[in-house]
């Protein structure tokens, strides 16, 4: 019975792609949060990577039918997301950035309540579904603990359990691992990757490691624009021979930032390792470094920042 319920939860008919085309959004205060975003997101884990304020939540909320766009389209399979909101809500599981729970209810009571709201009326079916989800998210043993006493990681796993109710075809998780300790993060990663085998899972995050570890496809977004998209491994391969590193004293950092295209700096053993990005080795004081996704991410963000800053004087002249 339990196994059957789990299979039912995870079963999807045909794989569904999420296709976003030319999506734009400007808030009433004039902030342009999305500027013509286009993405094709297949079944599996998709990482949407960007710093704070990049536009990730705006995009997630629009896909989750919680806010409207000014222009563009979103299709999930044959569902027109912007114009068929009730249909989307039937196949959507959403774990928002701020996920509120009733602290005095136990996980079991709350999930049972959510299951009723999702329309699972049959008590026997609901019991099996709730149990299967608590098992899957590794919370069954803690099912009778009040949610107010859950740790951050347990709350996030509970958030996934509620998002999985109703056999979703699309799961959206917004910044889910912020604030989790390494063990909890690891557990959460395992859970997400298991789910990602069966449906479209969009993971919005500013934590590069989450995307490296989990995602088959990704995009980097900043200032409302998609800067790069692809497979994380291929994206990193394309940066081979372009990352250069050097160890310096802390006091030398400002001068290096001025002189070279430094994309990141990490403290190491009381010193600083700086990394520069470029086709040529900056000079003989640098050595070649094996690139990783963080190098690519920082170089993209920096290039975008510089391009935006370079535009400002032109705008003033006009
Ligand atoms: N309701 C709103 N009204 C006005 N501006 C908004 C609103 N929501 C977001 N913004 C602005 O839109 C831009 C994108 O914000 P968004 O929350 O989508 O980014 P984010 O990548 O999710 O960042 P964070 O991780 O900090 O939430 C930011 O400049 C933000 O200040």
TrEMBL record:
Q: Tell me which domain of life the UniProt entry assigns to the organism this sequence originates from.
A: Bacteria
Q: Which UniProt keywords apply?
A: ATP-binding, Nucleotide-binding, Transport
Database matches in InterPro entries: AAA+_ATPase, ABC_transporter-like_ATP-bd, ABC_transporter-like_CS, P-loop_NTPase
ABC transporter domain location, by residue?
Answer: 18-248
Coiled-coil boundaries: none
GO MF term set:
ATP binding; ATP hydrolysis activity
Q: Name one Pfam family in it.
A: ABC_tran
Instruction: State the family it belongs to.
Output: Belongs to the ABC transporter superfamily.
* Protein name, per record: ABC transporter ATP-binding protein
Q: Which organism is it from?
A: Microscilla marina ATCC 23134
The organism that produces this protein has a lineage beginning with: Bacteria, Pseudomonadati, Bacteroidota, Cytophagia, Cytophagales
